[in-house]
Amino acid sequence: MDEFAFIDWIRGQGAFDPQRVPVGPGDDCAVVRVGGQLLLVTTDQCADGVHFILDDCGPDAAGYKVMARSLSDIAAMGGRPLGAVATVSAPKGMSESQLQALYRGLRRAGDAFDCPLVGGDVSAWSHPLLLTTTLWGAPAAAPLLRRGARPGEAICVTGTLGGSLASGKHLTFTPRVAAGCLLAERYPVSAMIDISDGLAADLRHLCRASGVGAELRRDAIPLSAAARATADPLAAALGDGEDYELLFTLPAEAAEALVAAQPLDVPVARIGTATAAGDVALIDPAGRRTPLAHAGWRHST
Amino acid sequence: MDEFAFIDWIRGQGAFDPQRVPVGPGDDCAVVRVGGQLLLVTTDQCADGVHFILDDCGPDAAGYKVMARSLSDIAAMGGRPLGAVATVSAPKGMSESQLQALYRGLRRAGDAFDCPLVGGDVSAWSHPLLLTTTLWGAPAAAPLLRRGARPGEAICVTGTLGGSLASGKHLTFTPRVAAGCLLAERYPVSAMIDISDGLAADLRHLCRASGVGAELRRDAIPLSAAARATADPLAAALGDGEDYELLFTLPAEAAEALVAAQPLDVPVARIGTATAAGDVALIDPAGRRTPLAHAGWRHST
After folding, report:
1. Which chain A residues contact residue B134 at CB under 8 A?
2. Is A221 exposed, middle or buried (0-12, 13-18, 19+ CB in 10 A)?
């Protein structure tokens, strides 16, 4: 099974009424119209042994992570969360106090972003813990999709990248809701995605949706301390994934103003340029161009 | 773990802003306010080995069931579905054609009720298939909650009860969306729930939420053909669960008019009366009163 091929197949299974469903499967959130209002909707799952190791991190961190991942999807559309529901498939024998810790972790992430957890479903079974969250939110301005990047625009990223799994950031990260909303409200952002699969893979998603290529400046990619501690910091930043930072495009002059002003609650850097050519390449300080290896972590493989 | 005790505990973990979240955890759907509009939101999960046997029913039926269960929750609030998202945790090795059949099952249920499946998440793992759906909808009139039944009101039910697991109805049932909306729009229904845990258990939920008791007329409970085929049809109707019929209360004279008119796309019957006393009892044709045994299937045990 290939998650991405399956999503492509789904997108071929009939179109939506564009009035009711302006954006269907394949972006960070779907966009639906309810009454007069655009709503962002996203759903995520986190499983013990895949997205966290329950025995290592405990139920509070697991709950935090699944909620924070969905918050990051709302952020990646330039939206504010409005509410959440969650499901818990708990291994038989999970104690009441563990379930309560799990709930507190979900709430810890939701409460930090004024996102009430309004309902859910709890069930026991003979297999590992599996959590899902579904969130809805409101776009701060027009929803920011993966498509929309144009050749010549700047490619920017928040924060630093790499080593999230090794450092534990994937359990404690701050979803970039405030940054995403400020970008949507005040900057001419043309396309945005959050980095869950890794810079290389998620940039490829953005480029594919937009029909552009990209050149990344090798020395401009912001490396996390955890990435710097590895043998190949650049590979970590490109491929590790689970950074939950924002990757976006906007006109070059607006990017210059953004980077000079640093108005977000997290550093923002320009790392490259969208191109007309379809591939994604690294440019080293000497100007040499290397097509990016098809690295990038996939959940489904 | 006791699902119901856990939900009680959650309900003690802080109140919601009643403007934003008029109804939180503990009913068939949460009710939230988005813009000027009330939205119903529900989330459900179905696991291989718990809610269906994948090898027996196949992926299409599994997909249908999880979506139909959520549609039934929208119906139980007197609502119309507006959209859905789903997650799939698929066992490694599940084939593309199986995943496609699963998707078709989800769509088969959603499409029948004009409920577009607008997004989701697919992941592979080394454990059985686990599906979740989250639906949102709009109440046809005021949302019908579990609370609101008053002593002296009639207790009614749609369809026939019992034997759903044995007969396979639990994989093919029709969510009572049309009936739920018609009841909400045209009858003074005071409380409603769908029968998933079984008539006895779900009536107890409704009574507990409303602060009433109930007397059921033993010979008025509509028995399904599958229940009649068992050694104890009444026990099947009371305890089997997964009927996905609507159980509701309304003033006695309105119930009389409803049962005489039969305006729903499914038969509706009066089966008893809400009482001031807190217990639930069966009344036999001779007038003898027997407290109902604490039967009723629980997902979580």
Report:
1. 43, 85, 134
2. buried
